[in-house]
């Protein structure tokens, strides 16, 4: 059975195997290119896995590719080793699929999607679709009935009043210029009054028809469609803190941490293209018409999902951004782009879009000008969207358990699509 799972194009539409048409076509060329980079041991192990269905060889090949991905800075990793990692993940997934071990299949495929190259991405995506369909089919009618009849748990929210909220927010919050809120904002009105002038605005009534508005607060729904999938999460206050780290865990493990009352260190799913990875969740959101403004190119959607207290420190992005608040509430503070120098950007290239200023604890000696700078801020409520113009600095704090989606797009002149 395992050997059958490792065979190639002859698999056709066999339900007992995962088809990998691109891999089978590119396999000899890939092995040649990997050999040219000194990957002789990898080639030996992956060939053994392909011809003999040897799980130990498949795992060894994956480990070798993983080591290459971590041999230096990510940008210096040769693209061939990213493709090699995708290939190894596919081989491991095929063997686990043949054995009916769907948890490990999903993990292998997700790791390939997250860490692998682009050449075999289509194979990984069609494999995920097949495994998801198979996993649904093997659930018994009784299990489905139980799932449908039980009262699902909901994402929990921290109760707070305004006085308590102001205690945790940066100094002067909600005391100055509040971002304007618009209901029934037309695309023409958005373009004329906000997009062209580069002015933030809250759009209050454009998400009621999204399936995500009701589905994403249902923990059982999230577990059902994404529970076995592996995702990258951030652990710690934020990415500028020394103790901050990243982990790869399943979505179910993430939900357990999110719902736990004993977790002292926040775990945050931040700026991850979740919807490219988990298509079922992508069906729950709709692209706002406002993202057509300027005729630009929409970038991959990013998810932001975490408990109360998670913070994205002060930074700016080069794109137009609509931050859609699907579940929960967030506080957002915004500084216009022309104040960049007064906000003390980091000198390092990797962090030059982030401020050295910790708004939660401002160092007046090191950053004397910050307290007097004008800003806009707001509470972004569930069901609202916030337009953040390019290069506007923003600080974001979750006030409750929060699930948001950001839509980034470029101006047409900055786009690769014309």
Automatic annotation (TrEMBL):
Does this UniProt record's set of keywords contain Protein biosynthesis?
no
Q: Name one GO molecular function term.
A: dioxygenase activity
UniProt xrefs under InterPro entries: ARM_KDM8_N, Cupin_8, JmjC_dom
Localization (cell) = Nucleus
Would you tell me the Gene Ontology cellular component terms?
Answer: nucleus
- Name the needed cofactors: Fe(2+)
What keywords are assigned to this protein? Answer: Dioxygenase, Iron, Metal-binding, Nucleus, Oxidoreductase
* Stored Pfam families: ARM_KDM8_N, Cupin_8
Is the keyword Nucleus in the record? yes
Which superkingdom, per the lineage?
Eukaryota
Location of the JmjC domain:
276-418
Q: Which family does it belong to?
A: Belongs to the JARID1 histone demethylase family.
Name-wise, this protein is JmjC domain-containing protein
Q: Which organism is it from?
A: Nepenthes gracilis
